[in-house]
Design a protein that fits this description.
The structure is a single chain. This protein is α+β, with helices and mostly antiparallel strands. It has eight helices and 16 strands. The chain has helices at about 10-15, 40-60, 115-125, 160-175, 200-220, 230-235, 290-295, 310-320, and strands spanning about 15-20, 25-30, 35, 40, 65-70, 80, 95, 105-110, 125-130, 145-150, 180-185, 190-195, 225, 235-240, 250, 265-270. The strands form five sheets. It has a six-stranded mixed β-sheet with strand order 13-14-10-12-11-16, covered by helices on one side. Helix 2 (about 40-60) packs antiparallel against helix 3 (about 115-125). The longest helix is centred in the first third of the chain and has 19 residues, at about 40-60. It starts with 7 loop residues before the first helix and ends with a helix.
Amino acid sequence: MAKKKTSGAKRARASQTLELGGRSIKLTSQTAVMFPADAITKGDLVAYYRDIAEVMLPHVRGRPLTVQRFSKGIDGKGFMQKQASDHYPDWIPRAHVPSKSGRGNGVDHPVCDEAAALVYLANQRCVTLHITSARADKLEHPDQVIFDFDPPDGQPASFERVRIGAGMLGELLDELGLVPFLKTSGSRGLHVIAPIERDTEVDDVRAFARSVCEWMAREQPKLFTTEMSKKARGDRVFLDYLRNGYAQTVVAAYSVRPLAGAPVSTPLVWDELSEPGLHAQTYTLKSVRERLGRRQCPWADFHGRAVSLEGPRAALTRRLS
C-alpha cells in the first residue's frame, strides 16, 4: 500500500521555529509522545526545559554533559551520549575531556550555557542531563562534593533509611564546615551536595567523600554500606561516593528522569526531609514549575556558599583519629 503524502500544511504544523536568546531553533515533531503513560509529548519536554532554564542553568553551565536520549519515547530503548553530535549547532560549546588512562583521544561533550541549548537538546529527545562535578576549564578540580543515597531495588520502605542517611550526613557536613544542599534524585534516592572551592584535586575530593561514607557505614552498619557488590549490600542503602571521580557524573538539578510520571531531580530545603509524603519522585515535569511559582529555588545561593575543602578534610581527620 502506498504511503500517504504529508501535505505542506501538516508539515508546517509538525515543525516551527522558536526564537530564544537571539538563537533560532527549529522544533520538530512536537506532538510526538515521549512519556506514553502520561501523554507527555516532546513539545511538553521542550516547554519544560525552556521554562526551567533560569534556575537550571547555574547548575549545568560550563560543565561537560552526558545526555540520555530516547528516539522513540521512554518506553523504547534509550542511550547515553557523551560525544557532541556533529549536527549540533556551532553555538553549543564543546568541552574536551581527555581520557584519564591516556588511552584514546578523549571525548568532546556538549555544554549548556544558555536556555537555547537546553531547548535544542530537548528537541533532540534528550530527556535527562548528567553533569560532572568539575567545570570544563578545570576538570581536575571539582567545585562540589557529591553524595548519592542509593536504596536497594524493589524496596520502597527503604526510602526511610535514605531520609535518615541524608539527615545524618547533612549534620556531619555542617559540623565539618561545609554547606550541604539536598535534592531528590528523581529516581530512587536523594543527593546531598556541598559546593567547594576549586583548590582540591579530584582524587582528594573522592577520598574525602569515601571517608565520610565509610564513617557513616561504621556508625550505622545495619542501615548503610559502601559495598560495591549489590549482593553484599543486602537491604542496606548504598552510600555512593563514586560520583566524585574524574569525569564521573550525577543527574543535574531540575533534570527530568525517563520514568512514568516524568519525575524531576528537585532541589529541596532541609525541612522538607521530614515531610511524610516525600519520596524520590515527588516532583515532576508537571509540578516543578508550580512549586517554583510558590517559592524561590532552594539552591539559589548554591555557588555562593562554596568553601575550601582543606578545613573540612582536617576536621574529618580529627574526628576519625
